[in-house]
Model the fold of this input.
Amino acid sequence: MNIRETTNLDIEDILLVERAAFKREGEAMLTRNLLVDPTAKPILSLLAYNETQPIGHILFTKATIITAPHIKASMLAPLAVVPQYQKQGVGSALIKKGLQLQSQSGIELVFVLGHIEYYPKYGFTPAAKLGFEPTYPIPNEVADAWMVQALKPGIIGAVSGKVMGCDAMNRPENWRE
Done:
């Protein structure tokens, strides 16, 4: 498996992965919108390949903590793996590579709204309990799906507040788990 940063020429491969993974158009359209949204920058978009076949994609876009806009934060969404390659370490490799590159670029916090059984394996913890409010309310029964990971030691507890994603992310339909 090879993982690399995407370019503008990769849009069809990205959308192919998103459509295959989610079996609906919503995530593909969200991904397309995120990739062209100027408020999403800086963006980190990674594609995983098995030889020449695209098999996974992860996207990190800008997030802002309203009470602490100086903190460099990002939102992980979406993570997609083609079904026949799921449960083979593709998602894990994309997350690890993405977090490594985010850390190297100075990102201090990464947020995700995702599966509560999956993302904690990679260091994510429930964000609301740490004082980070999501852009839109999340039902109590899935509140722990709103998670954060600190990439800078000591940042948790030193900052809190409402987290806003980029314009393309800031729609209620994107805040359901």
Summary: The chain has one domain: 2-174.
